[in-house]
Write a structure and sequence with these properties.
Blueprint (H helix, E strand, L loop, with lengths): L1 H9 L14 H28 L8 H29 L4 H30 L8 H12 L14 H4 L5 H16 L9 H11 L13 H30 L1 H11 L3 H14 L4 H16 L11 H8 L1 H18 L8 H41 L18
Length: 399
């Protein structure tokens, strides 16, 4: 219903959708669906938070999995597109690459975080509750995309206001910083085994911490970040890297199953969302589904429909601002107190509509102009254009 409504209202937005006939067209709409899955997950979390004070999805397997359903596939996309480019070029021009990435990601991020901080100031009545030094110190990690933490600002819990979504951008930047090192591994597929040997032990650093002494606290934080990044290098970016490395073989295999690929994709997605207590197995389901999407599976045309592609255009700002909208809606109704399920569902529907409108404004006023600048920089350096929740127009650039 929401997609159809957005399609009717899309009008001018439809002009910025670039028609795509290549086999990656399904990725264009996929981003919009993945962003919506995160939005739905956080709506459910907020409901239980107001009921119990705990950030949880209760016993719902489906709503619990919606977050990883979106985030893992965003990482798949980044790993896949960048690895394809590394396999072709063997290197990345660093100056142009990092400038392009910053121009692409930064402006919409800073506007969205600025809105979240402003919302926190509104709740505090614009009263300065900390010293100027402490205030500036709390802003610095947010300016660095969450590197160094995501602290409260003037006692406002920006992490809660944003639903904590910025942790994925921190990992995305860590992946970008690692790409020059990864270039050597892209030249031979067998070298992926070496990467596995590097990141598998690192993913266990936090669980089996060896740090001690007077710096144990700080070292433990570093260990947690290393472990988190290593984990998502294995099951997130690494999944996309694997699909890129095996793409010729997957292409041959997909020809055999092409008549049934949409049914297979639907089955794999439903299995991922519904099967409990088998996370390792269901992650394989999700990766197999992503491989089908890369080879053109589109869920019977749903992923390539105009309405879903329109959602894909604004998926990045939707991802960034939906938490602020949820937060302010609850504040406006008198605080984060428990409400009945039906009124909460009505409130959530209004929040989603408001988030889409706000994301559309950010895209048209901020994101699209800077996206064109990023495209120019990337084009001169022959760089791939991808980011967590990249707008649809960018997919074709990476061919």
């Amino acid at each position: 219903m929401l997609a159809l409504l957005f399609d009717r209202l899309g009008g001018g937005l439809g002009k910025v959708v670039r028609p795509s006939s290549n086999k990656l067209a399904s990725l264009e709409g996929l981003r919009g669906i993945l962003a919506c899955s995160v939005v739905a997950h956080h709506a459910y979390c907020w409901y239980f938070f107001t009921q119990t004070g705990e950030w949880t999805t209760g016993r719902s397997v489906i709503f619990a999995r919606l977050a990883s359903f979106g985030v893992l596939q965003f990482f798949f996309v980044s790993g896949f597109l960048f690895w394809r480019k590394l396999m072709k070029r063997g290197e990345i021009p660093l100056g142009s690459f990092y400038l392009s990435r910053f121009v692409r990601i930064g402006p919409a991020y800073y506007v969205s975080i600025g809105i979240a901080i402003f919302a926190g100031l509104v709740v505090s009545g614009f009263r300065l509750q900390v010293g100027v030094g402490a205030l500036l110190g709390s802003l610095l990690p947010w300016l660095l995309f969450g590197v160094g933490g995501r602290p409260a600002v003037n006692h406002a819990d920006i992490l809660r206001i944003t639903c904590g979504v910025t942790w994925t951008l921190t990992l995305e930047w860590m992946f970008y910083l690692l790409l020059p090192f990864l270039a050597w591994f892209s030249r031979k597929n067998w070298r992926l085994l070496i990467l596995l040997g590097i990141f598998a032990p690192l993913s266990l650093v936090n669980k089996y911490s060896l740090f001690g002494g007077v710096n144990a606290g700080y070292a433990h934080v570093i260990g947690m970040e290393l472990a988190k990044f290593a984990k998502f290098m294995l099951i997130g970016f690494g999944g996309g890297i694997l699909i890129a490395a095996l793409e010729p073989r997957i292409r041959n295999w997909s020809r055999v199953v092409q008549p049934w690929q949409n049914w297979m994709l639907l089955g794999l997605y439903l299995a991922y969302l519904a099967i409990p207590n088998l996370d390792a197995v269901t992650d394989v389901f999700l990766l197999a589904g992503f491989a089908l999407v890369v080879q053109g599976a589109d869920l019977f045309g749903f992923l390539t429909s105009r309405a879903v592609r329109l959602l894909g255009i604004i998926s990045y700002p939707i991802y960034l601002v939906h938490g602020v909208v949820y937060y302010m809606a609850m504040k406006l109704r008198g605080g984060m107190h428990a409400v009945a399920l039906l009124p909460y569902m009505a409130e959530t529907a209004g929040c989603v509509a408001a988030a889409i409108l706000l994301a559309t404004a950010i895209h048209l006023l901020i994101e699209r102009p800077t996206m064109k600048l990023s495209e120019n920089i990337a084009h001169k350096a022959a760089l791939p254009q991808t980011v967590l929740l990249e707008p649809t127009a960018q997919v074709a650039v990476s061919r």
